[in-house]
Amino acid sequence: MTRTKAALCALLAVSALLLMPFHPAAGQAPQPRWYTPEQVARGAGIYAQHCAGCHGPRAEATPDWRQPEPGGDYPPPPLDGTAHAWHHPMPDLRHTVREGGSRLGGRMPGFDDKLAPEEVDAVIAWFQSLWPDEVYAAWGKRSRAAGQPPPDRAEARSDERQAPSLDRLQRMLPGAVIGPPTPVPVAGLNQVKVGPEYAYISQDGRYLLIGDLIDLAHQTNLTEQAKGQDRLARLARIPAADMVVYPAERAERATITVFIDSTCPYCRKLHREMPALQSAGVTVRYLAFPRSGPRGPGSDEMRAVWCAADRRTSMDIAQGVRDGQLGHGDCEAADAVQRGYRLGQDFGVQGTPAIVLANGRLLPGYRPASEILALLGLAPGRRAEEQQGSP
Asked: Cα(260)–Cα(19) distance, rounded to whole angstroms?
């Protein structure tokens, strides 16, 4: 099978999954929801920045959220409809986000000084979009019985009329995080982000295209460019404390970010070529991505690296280029391993190493230092400005 045919087969498989129709339970009509797709899209970004670190990227929280911790506080509960968030009417949900969760037995901080009222509503809209119809209906019934019905949908309906292109798609994919439509250089077509992927939707919302949009005149993959900008924006919010950084020698000419695992032989092979990258002016930033998941052996070793006083030395030990023993992995800094794993999943990382170049392009798998430098425009005979070219 040719690479083109394989790519088309994969595209058709993804399309079939994405466009699978939603069927509510027999005899039940989906209850109209108070929020708009635009609010859900806005809330997704706010949630990712302020809430995902505790409640999980998909509001799934932790498996043991029902068990109190040694201090008596309860861990963050799921917000995806599987816990008790639906027990609380809208005023209570707003109050908890603004003032914190101490009154409910948790340690959640308040966000009244960080989020405007409309941003609080957007966060609630996002995690309620994950609720199944029966959970949302139960929330509405319980709220009305308490004399605190869900917000009036009059304003939401007005917003939907302004952006009809998203209405059908959101109803077809309940719970999906759908970004606002943005124009592309094709008349009548808009680019829209569905979860971590991109699709293209007609102005009337009737037709959806799944796949890459290519500008043949400029030989540019517009879809990959958009994904690259997303990756760079997400990486810009990652604190240095969540990374192990190998700085460039002398003047820095480029930065790459690598999702890495200590049990991966090709990660070790790439790590041995670190000096060649550093001497060429490349700063290499490592994020943990244990291939076996957050509870596997790679995770234990990565946690030990992140807990070390000298992370680079510990990373060298973990990657087999230096002798020594790793220390313990029980510290607060080790939580960065799980955050790196979640970010890699959001990026679509399926194996290690996975390399994000300076322009946001994601390279799956091992690449020799010479190829990385060429792609960055730093190899002999290549212009440095090429690193800003299309992915």
From this structure: 33
Hey, which residues are catalytic here? 261, 264, 267, 291
| Phi/psi at 247 (5° precision) | -70, 155
Tell me: the pLDDT tens digits for 304-351? 999 999 999 999 999 999 999 998 888 999 899 999 999 998 898 989
CATH 1.10.760.10 is right for the domain spanning 21-171: yes
> How many angstroms separate the Cα of 200 from the Cα of each of 54, 91, 116?
33, 37, 31
Residue 162 has pLDDT above 90, yes or no: no
Model pLDDT, residue 69: 75
Q: Which residue has the tokens 């212009």?
A: 383
DSSP 213-236: -EETTTTEEHHHHHHHHHHHHHHH
> Shortest CA distance to 55 belongs to which of 123, 114, 133?
123
The pLDDT-based confidence of 183 (bands split at 50, 70, 90) is confident
Q: In the structure encoding, which two tokens stand for residue 56, read together?
A: 């999980």
Q: Which helix (H) or strand (E) holds 287?
A: strand 282-288
| CATH match for 241-388 among 1.10.132.100, 3.40.30.10, 3.90.1200.10, 3.90.400.10 | 3.40.30.10
Q: What is the pLDDT of residue 165?
A: 63
Let me know: does 76 contact 100? Beta carbons within 8 Å: no
Dmax (CA) of the chain = 73
